[in-house]
Amino acid sequence: MTQRIVVATDFSTRSDRALRRATLLARGTSARLVLVHVVDDDQPARLVEVSQREATILLTELARTVHDVDNVPCDAKVMLGEPFEGLSGAAEEFDADLTVMGPYRRQALREMFMGTTVERTIRRSRRPILMANAVPSRQYHRILIATDFSESSAHALNTARDLGLFHDAEVLLLHVFDAPARGMMFGATLPQDQIKDYIAEQERCATINMVEFIGRVGFKPRRQILKLAEEPTGAIIKNCARYERADLIVVGTRGQSGLGTLLLGSVAEGVLQGSEIDVLAVPLPQPSGQEEQP
Prior knowledge:
- The chain is α/β, with parallel strands linked by helices.
- The protein is built from 9 helices and 12 strands.
- α8 (about 235-245) packs across α9.
């Protein structure tokens, strides 16, 4: 069960979503919140000092309000450095079970996830990160878990369960399966029945793998969903979440590189980019004995 949650805030409306979602989670799990604001230290020392002092005042007042109004224990911490480094560092310092961030800032003329603070924090952190995209109103009631049957997706499912997110929620398990010869069969103008039989066989294999995966993780979802990969997998996952009215998507983000940064898979990136639904991104644990590089 969740014990400590780091909440990223830059005092914007976007980060208010992160705070409200984290507060709801803390109420349901009796967790302690740690509000974190990062001051950029790549500026004159005097400006850093002033920014740090002002942020400390605002953050302390905010933590007191959360404690008094929401009855949730709450601490405040101002970090110095790059935002993504400060947030991942705070998560390690407080041994956080979860970091909650608001949605990334989106530009009017283009959708750009790569290079945002959220993306860089997810790459840096070795702990789960919840991107709170939607306006929070209640505990999660329908959760969509995307799986490719890998160790990464199994760990993501188990982490969401250990965080207490499954309590009173319907959990749906989605797998997007491929039919690699489908395009070639269409190009060869084979009979439609033959193509359909081939796709049905691929779906049958996916069903068998789904059953094996469920047995391996020891968790039975409310429903299992199989979708043919007719468009990018990230788009299929988001479309399925909208159709099923899910309020949380859970996705594994692969693992750690030798440089201490996350190997963010294309599927995870596709889900995180432009999602209007909350996304829990879960990295694989760092292998024992492997130290993070500076």
